[in-house]
Write a structure and sequence with these properties.
Structural class: alpha+beta
Shape: globular
Strand order of the largest sheet: 1-2-3-6-7-8
Radius of gyration: 19 Å
Strand content: 35-45%
Number of helices: 4
Largest sheet: 6 strands, antiparallel
Distance between the termini: 64 Å
Length: about 200
């Protein structure tokens, strides 16, 4: 009985200490809040995003180290099995210069051995849309990941801005998916470009 109880306690402790799913690496992200945002345009199109606001901490720091390959590998493996969130678009649109067909997508991030991030939108069937993330440095460090949808001045486009720690980038959303033109010129957002720090 003592052996059984010891084993049970050890197993429970291991489960409590283990990182949870959905790319929520690290015990501090076990209770990461879920955030949902949406924009409905006058032409009837709508974009909605939901994600877990993971905390910036040691895991990100370790991923960005030259000897952090094991951290990067694990983070990337979770992208396919348990993505960070989801994105839905009601009509074909452009995001960061890439055509995104109407539908529901798994939202995840990956990092290469060259320390380059990508945002992946994976449909229920077919190939994922991979958006290169050209990160800049935010003026201040955020406690948790923030993904913000902001309508552009012309009310026909939007900006999808991602901030994680001091990493910062934005994507233009909207435009003519048939012509391949997005809304990059409307509010300065581009193809995953990092915003400059304001000093």
């Amino acid at each position: 009985m003592r052996i059984f109880l010891t084993t049970a306690v050890s197993l429970a402790a291991a489960l409590l200490a283990a990182p949870t799913s959905a790319q929520k690496m690290g015990s501090k992200n076990r209770d990461a809040p879920k955030v949902t945002q949406s924009i409905a345009f006058a032409n009837g199109s709508k974009i909605e995003i939901s994600y877990f606001a993971i905390a910036q901490g040691a895991y990100l720091d370790n991923m960005l180290k030259a000897d952090g390959k094991s951290y990067r590998t694990r983070f990337n493996s979770m992208a396919e099995r348990a993505p960070l969130g989801k994105l839905s678009v009601s009509k074909d649109t452009m995001i960061g210069g890439h055509k995104v067909a109407a539908g529901d997508y798994k939202l995840s991030f990956t990092i290469s051995e060259e320390m380059k991030f990508s945002m992946s939108l994976t449909p229920k069937s077919g190939d994922a849309v991979k958006l290169p993330v050209d990160t800049g440095e935010a003026a201040s460090k955020t406690a948790r990941m923030s993904i913000q949808l902001t309508p552009a001045r012309d009310a026909k486009h939007a900006t999808l801005a991602v901030v994680y720690g001091k990493l910062n980038c934005s994507f233009a959303v909207g435009g003519n998916a048939e012509s391949g033109k997005d809304g990059a010129s409307h509010d300065g957002a581009g193809q995953g470009k990092g915003a400059r720090s304001r000093r």
